Each structure stands twice: as C-alpha cells, then as structure tokens.
C-alpha cells in the first residue's frame, strides 16, 4: 500500500458508457441486495462505475469527483464486498470472523455519522457490524474505544480520534484503508499529522482508497504515502472541461438594494412560491443564522439552524429531521475556523437529499466554498436550483469571481414584481425590528440551554433503553420557535387589502395564508364593581350616626 505514481488514469464524464447495474460491477450478491433493499439506489453513478471494479479487485484507487457524484458508495460497496469475503474465509477456516478489516477516515464528526449509516445499512442483513468513533476524550473512554475496535468489521472516525485509539495490534487485521474527502481532511491544521500517523499504523499489504473533490499538492503527498501504484479515476460533473455547468442545476441571481432587502426578497419569494420544496440557506456565521431564524419565526415559517456549536449528535438529529421532511428550510453556516475547531462543515461531505434550492444569503469567501455549497443540490442525478443574493455592485462582482475562471455558467436574474416586494416591505421592516442583537444572542443561549438539558437526559439513556433514547431524541424540535413570547401569529396571514398585486393573488391558493377576516383581539370583560345604593349606605359608617 505504499509509494509510487499512478498506474493508470481514467477520465470519466457523465456521458461515458458504464455498467447500468450494481450486479454488473462484480459485487457480492449480499451487497447488491442491500443496495436495492436498504439504500434504494437504482443504478451506479459514473464515479461508482469507474471505481468499484478496480476496488473490488483489490487495487489501490485515487478518485477525484465533485460533490453529489456518489463517492461514498464508490468506496463503501467494494469495502463491504471485501470484508464479507474475508469473513467467509475466516469462518470457513474455523476462526473468529468479526475483527476490524476496514478503516474509514473522514474529516468531520457529522460525515462520520452519515458514512456510518451507509455501512450499517449495507451490513444490516449480515453478522458484521460498523462502528463510528467521534469526539471521544479521556483515558477511560479511549480504552473503551480500543476494546470496541475489536468487535467491529468496519470502523469510521475522524483523524483526531483514530490516531488516539488505534494501535498496531488492532490495525494488523486491516485489509482496506479509506481516506474520504482527503482535501478537507488535510486542510485542518492538526489532521495532516494525525492522518499520517494512522496510515503508518496500517499494514503495508492493506488496500488503499483515496477519495477527494480536488487533487492539490497535499493530497498528492498523501497518495504517495498511502497508496502503491494506484489507479486514478477522475470524474467531471460539476463543471466539465469546457467550463459548462451541470445541466441538472440551474443558477440564479437576485439583486436587491440592501442586506435587509435580502430578507424582504426571501419572504416575498416564499409567499409567491418562487422558492419552494426542501431548501438549504447558507450564511457566514452563527449569529446571522439565528437572526434569519428569528425573522422567519415572526411569520410562522418553520426553519432550523444547523449550529456548529452544538454536539455532533444534535447536529446529526437536526439533519435527520430535515431529511425526513419534518421541516423544509435548514439554515447552515460553513465558517472555515469553526470547521477546523469543531470538525464540522455543512458545505462539505454532508449528503442532503432532495434539496430543491440552495440559497447563498451571504456569499462565501472562496470559489471552492461556493462550489461545495452549491453542490448540496442536484445530487444523484436530480435537478436543483442555486440562488445567490447580492446587494451591491461590489458583491455582484465578487459573485462572478467565485465562479470557475473557465466557466460559461450564466446566472440570470430571478425577478420578483416590485409591487409584490413593496406590499410586504412594512411587515418585513416591522419584523426586523424585533431581530435585535440582544434577541439573537438570547436565541443562541436558548439553543445551548436546551441542548444542555437534553444532553443530560441523553447521557443517561445512551447505555439504557433504546426506546427511551429514541423518545428523548424526538423531543428535540430543531425547528421550534425560538422566542414564543415575541411571536406574531397574525403575520402568518395576508389580509385581503394587501392582495392588490396580481402576482400575489395568483400565487396564493384560496384560504391558504390569507386572512378573510381581520384578526380580532379578545378583550377581558371588566367586572362591574358598582354596588347598589342600599349596600353603599349600609357600609357607610357616617349614615349610621344619630344626630
């Protein structure tokens, strides 16, 4: 599994002829069955068709493919195939079949949980298990993790955890080492040394699979360290060699006058059904995310914040609720410093399914982040839309710089009738008055307090009843209103006098969000405190005096 230059290079494009079924890729029947019954994948993607045959044959592979191209399946399926075959050989030879045979290194805790879910689905109908190790500290916990390594066939974890708990003895049985999102792994300050430490512990005979969205100098160095005569597979899907954007994804731009007008545009677009379906909105910091949520709460629009400051379990549960359709609007951040400190990035690795719109409420700082944010939609052959909001000439110029230099991608304006915007301006400005810095800070603290309360309960349940644990997780409502005392239910309705704009009348279904009657405020009836004259005289001591 060491050294040297690529043995072959295979460039694939979405139009290249490839096997149309997973069975044709040489996979074990149990793997093919799990793909169909558990994962519901219909056909292999281009990167899967290119990588799987080589990986099944035991060859080292370096795969470079963009987000949403199916890289996880490209390595997960051959890994499970090889693990199952080794298990069969061990059982046939009278040995214990359940030992660690595959190690998957991922950059973030959230991606580890997601990849772990794929492996658990693939192994669900077999006697083998997958183990996810994330964010564990302390001697006792590390010792426990080392013991658990011996009882799982596939182990998934971040470099920080694996470098602490992996030992030479435990790694001696490895047959496959995978480094997923290698460019992101190496972009974190401490991860490079930790990944190299993990690689050095693996046997020289272990197969290596390196997966990345880009191939920079650091990834090339890791390839030289971890792989021997790898077969290189490069799949272009986001932008092809001529710079043409993927036809499945439509790019749009909306020009407004100010930062607050971005929220006016977004609210109007939601009312007009211009924005619809499952949506992922990106901002550049957590405070902006909570301000946006507070704004939406004022109008009764359900949303949730994917907060990097919360534990991985809570973030994973938030994503699971979003994927399950409990709410359709998820607000996320992808701050570079937070990604490094917390091991979390919503724009990288996370597989958000059926996302109709990715909205750049605030533009990222690099073209790479713009590409990876946008890659959360149009995944697995589905269609999607990307919208960028700009509020100045400078911001618009920056947007064009974020596109690849060779790209011929166009971003036509996504217009909304000015009269529709002006219809809601007063309401939006009124709602923004409540979204102060203090209110945003209180919302952030409330989220942390709620997490602390639920985390204490979860800690008691982790080793206990699974049903109680599931009930406690369900109690975490990530899309609940942050400040119910300031909520304004009447703002969720549009009175008739505001429907002068024809676009609004056409967009809004009958009796849906329109208040046919003005909202009536209930008044408490005052008790009649007047007393009868007779009673008053009886209580007046002066009237009892005899003169």
UniProtKB/TrEMBL annotation:
Keywords: ATP-binding, Helicase, Hydrolase, Nucleotide-binding, RNA-binding
Record carries keyword ATP-binding: yes
Xref: SMART domains: DEXDc, HELICc
Enzyme Commission number(s) from the entry: 3.6.4.13
Compositionally biased intervals (Polar residues): 1-19
Start and end residues of each DEAD-box RNA helicase Q domain: 20-49
Similarity comment text for this entry: Belongs to the DEAD box helicase family. DDX56/DBP9 subfamily.
Protein name (record): RNA helicase
Source organism (scientific name): Cyanidium caldarium (Red alga)
């Amino acid at each position: 599994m060491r050294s040297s230059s690529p043995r072959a290079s295979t460039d694939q494009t979405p139009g290249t002829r490839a096997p149309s079924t997973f069975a044709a890729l040489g996979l074990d029947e149990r793997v093919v069955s799990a793909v169909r019954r558990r994962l519901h994948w219909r056909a292999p993607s281009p990167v899967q068709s290119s990588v799987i045959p080589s990986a099944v044959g035991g060859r080292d592979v370096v795969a470079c493919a963009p987000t949403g191209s199916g890289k996880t399946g490209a390595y997960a399926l051959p890994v499970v195939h090889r693990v199952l075959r080794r298990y069969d050989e061990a059982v046939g030879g009278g040995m214990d079949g359940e030992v660690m045979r595959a190690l998957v290194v991922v950059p973030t805790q959230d991606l580890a949980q997601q990849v772990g879910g794929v492996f658990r689905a693939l192994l669900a109908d077999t006697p083998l298990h997958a183990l996810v190790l994330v964010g564990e500290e302390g001697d006792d916990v590390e010792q426990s993790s080392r013991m658990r390594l011996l009882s799982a066939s596939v182990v998934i974890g971040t470099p920080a955890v694996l470098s602490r708990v992996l030992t030479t003895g435990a790694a001696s049985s490895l047959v496959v080492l995978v480094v997923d999102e290698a460019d992101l792994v190496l972009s974190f300050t401490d991860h490079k040394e930790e990944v190299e430490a993990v690689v050095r512990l693996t046997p020289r005979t272990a197969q290596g699979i390196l997966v990345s969205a880009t191939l920079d100098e650091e990834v090339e160095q890791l390839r030289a360290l971890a792989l021997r005569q790898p077969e290189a597979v490069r799949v272009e899907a986001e932008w092809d060699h001529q710079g043409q954007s993927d036809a499945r994804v439509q790019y749009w731009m909306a020009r407004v006058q100010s930062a607050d007008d971005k929220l006016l545009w977004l609210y109007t677009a939601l009312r007009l059904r211009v924005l619809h379906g499952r949506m992922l909105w990106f901002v550049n910091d957590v405070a902006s995310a909570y301000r946006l949520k507070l704004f939406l709460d004022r109008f009764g629009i359900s949303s949730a914040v994917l907060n990097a400051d919360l534990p991985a379990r809570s973030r994973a549960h938030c994503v699971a609720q979003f994927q399950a359709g409990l709410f359709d609007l998820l607000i996320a951040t992808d701050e570079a410093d937070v990604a490094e400190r917390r091991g979390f990035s919503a724009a990288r690795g996370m597989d958000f399914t059926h996302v109709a719109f990715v909205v750049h409420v605030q533009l990222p700082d690099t073209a790479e982040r713009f590409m990876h944010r946008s890659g959360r939609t149009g995944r697995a052959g589905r269609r999607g839309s990307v919208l960028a909001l700009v509020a100045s000439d400078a911001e618009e110029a920056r947007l064009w710089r974020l596109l690849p230099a060779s790209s011929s991608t166009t971003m036509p304006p996504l217009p909304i009738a000015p009269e529709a915007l002006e219809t809601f301006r007063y309401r939006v400005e009124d709602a923004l008055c409540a979204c102060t810095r203090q209110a945003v800070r209180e919302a952030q603290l409330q989220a942390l307090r709620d997490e602390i309360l639920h985390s204490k309960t979860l800690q008691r349940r982790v080793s206990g009843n699974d049903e109680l644990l599931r009930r406690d997780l369900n109690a975490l409502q990530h899309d609940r209103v942050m400040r119910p005392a300031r909520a304004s239910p009447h703002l969720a309705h549009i009175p008739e006098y505001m429907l002068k704009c024809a676009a609004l009348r056409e967009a809004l279904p009958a009796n849906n969000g329109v208040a046919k009657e003005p909202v009536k405020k209930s008044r408490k009836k005052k008790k009649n405190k007047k007393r009868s004259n007779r009673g008053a005289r009886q209580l007046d001591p002066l009237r009892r005096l005899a003169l």
